[in-house]
Design goal:
Helix content is 5%, strand content 42%.
Length: 299
């Protein structure tokens, strides 16, 4: 999962893909009906392998990474394109690494029997007698990966996976809460200069600037919701210094990250009032839903 962070941000933020990882059991709710799963989820994105072209072997699709002992690939089964994870001897294993902030995941699994489990500890054994080829999980904790495996009977069948959906848990009628991405080693906000792509520390003024005012623009990255340019009036970014003074950072642009439909970016202007502030905690609010706090350094 490290590769897409490098492609997106260069050396400035190579640890994006390993943040917000949780291995604790979260007692996810299990669904065997897609309609019920959809009703319990929001911001769902679905990978239908019919639409994935010129990818052989498959490594990642929309920032979702697929891994198995033998390289997974797209093949045709009964006239449909599906992702295939071949068995190796007497063992089958396909691991799907999900984007940060995923709390809902579901898929169609066409070979049975097969064990489908999540990194949060839930597991379902899919059998032909179930009458359903769908399984979904919705959790209040991040689901880092989906693991599909089997070591019986012999030989074990290959994984046939289709219509992988991922998104967030729905909490009533409440809008989704943004999650500010942080690095795994320092828990600092993943943030880059919008012009140079350099990481923190930042300065109020920059010599490399497209704006005539000379002020630095910082881009932050959020998951858990999808932002478009029309959402700009509803996005608010604030910084809190060590004396608990709160400063507004004028938000100038929002939108999706290119090639990653589940990640959004927010670009702000650094105001004069933050000159020499040092470490400040950043929050991103969208429609009054406030993200986690994450520090950046402004010198």
């Amino acid at each position: 999962m490290l590769s897409y962070a490098l492609k997106l941000f260069g050396s400035a933020a190579i640890v994006v893909a390993v943040c917000v990882v949780s291995a604790s059991r979260a007692d996810a709710v299990v669904f065997r009906d897609r309609a019920a799963f959809n009703a319990a989820s929001q911001n769902l994105r679905t990978i239908d392998f019919e639409s994935v072209v010129n990818v052989d072997p498959v490594l990642d699709v929309d920032g979702v990474f697929f891994s198995s002992t033998r390289q997974p690939y797209i093949g045709t089964q009964q006239g449909n394109k599906v992702l295939i994870g071949d068995t190796i001897g007497e063992f089958t294993l396909l691991t799907v690494f999900l984007p940060p902030g995923t709390t809902a995941v579901g898929c169609d699994q066409f070979n049975t029997p097969m064990i489908v489990a999540t990194s949060t500890g839930e597991s379902v054994t899919m059998n032909q007698s179930d009458g359903s080829t769908f399984v979904g999980f919705v959790s209040d904790q991040p689901i880092v990966s989906l693991i599909i495996s089997l070591d019986f009977p012999e030989p074990t069948p290959s994984v046939l996976l289709d219509n992988l959906s991922f998104g967030q848990r729905r909490a009533g009628n409440e809008p989704p809460v943004p999650q500010l991405l942080v690095t795994s080693d320092t828990s600092r906000a993943v943030a880059v200069d919008s012009v140079t792509n350099e990481s923190q520390p930042f300065h109020v003024l920059s010599t490399h600037n497209f704006a005539t005012d000379g002020h630095t623009r910082i881009t932050f990255f959020v998951v858990g919701l999808t932002l478009a340019s029309a959402d700009l009036p509803f996005v608010k970014v604030q910084a809190e210094d060590q004396q608990q003074h709160v400063f507004d950072l004028p938000c100038e642009a929002v939108g999706r990250v290119k090639n990653l439909s589940w990640m959004s970016q927010v670009t702000v202007r650094v105001p004069d009032t933050l000159a020499g502030a040092g470490n400040v905690n950043i929050t991103v609010s969208v429609r009054n839903k406030v993200s986690n706090k994450a520090p950046v350094r402004i010198e």
